[in-house]
């Protein structure tokens, strides 16, 4: 649940800022805080716990997205100078958006056109519907955001933001279905995890 809540919260923050038209250069410091200090740290810790428990799939997914959140947060750290390298006369250049598009595309496509998030989606097909939904919406959200960075088409950013919110709610549902248990809350509060295949 910790890893899923961290995943959903970072994606929700980023998606809301995308949908409201907030500019990358002035408000994404909020995303940096969520991505680094909640998503990055929490998901990396969860990945390490899962590795210790022998859960290879969970360890890989949470470790990978922990790294994604650390690197995504680092994009906006002024000390690293990434945005400064792409700024001319106080304005971010198209080269910055192309680089951001490549960055997003890497999380959707990996070497030899294998889809990294899609690979996780395939690996989750026997888990639960919220996990499959979260990964599926993530594939399409990142694809739209990558295409938007390259083309500047606002509708792609809107689609990416909306799909990101869907992914966030899938992550929240998945987390809460594991968190709200018989030991912690009443039966009318609990959520069905919607298991896709019996163990």
Automatic annotation (TrEMBL):
Keyword Lyase annotated: no
Q: How does it sit in the membrane?
A: Multi-pass membrane protein
Could you tell me where this protein is found in the cell?
Answer: Membrane
Q: Which UniProt keywords apply?
A: Membrane, Transmembrane, Transmembrane helix
Membrane spanning residue stretches: 5-24, 30-49, 95-122, 129-150, 156-180
Give yes or no: UniProt keyword Transit peptide: no
Gene Ontology CC annotations of this record: plasma membrane
Q: One GO molecular function term?
A: acetate transmembrane transporter activity
Q: Give the family per the record.
A: Belongs to the acetate uptake transporter (AceTr) (TC 2.A.96) family.
Q: What's the protein name? A: GPR1/FUN34/yaaH family-domain-containing protein
Naturally occurring in which organism (per UniProt): Coniophora puteana (strain RWD-64-598) (Brown rot fungus)
């Amino acid at each position: 649940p910790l890893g899923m809540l961290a995943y959903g919260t970072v994606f929700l923050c980023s998606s809301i800022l995308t949908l409201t038209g907030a500019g990358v250069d002035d408000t994404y410091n909020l995303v940096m805080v969520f991505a680094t200090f909640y998503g990055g740290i929490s998901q990396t810790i969860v990945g390490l716990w899962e590795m210790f428990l022998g859960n290879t799939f969970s360890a890989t997914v949470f470790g990978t997205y922990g790294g994604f959140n650390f690197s995504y947060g680092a994009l906006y750290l002024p000390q690293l100078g990434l945005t400064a390298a792409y700024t001319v006369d106080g304005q971010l250049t198209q080269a910055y958006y192309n680089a951001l598009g490549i960055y997003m595309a890497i999380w959707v496509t990996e070497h030899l056109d294998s889809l990294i998030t899609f690979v996780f989606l395939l690996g989750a097909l026997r888990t639960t519907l919220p996990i499959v939904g979260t990964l599926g919406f993530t594939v399409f959200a990142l694809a739209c955001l990558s295409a938007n960075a390259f083309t500047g088409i606002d509708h792609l950013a809107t689609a990416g933001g909306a799909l990101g919110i869907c992914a966030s709610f899938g992550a929240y549902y998945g987390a809460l279905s594991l968190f709200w248990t018989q030991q912690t809350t009443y039966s009318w509060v609990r959520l069905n995890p919607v298991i896709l295949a019996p163990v």
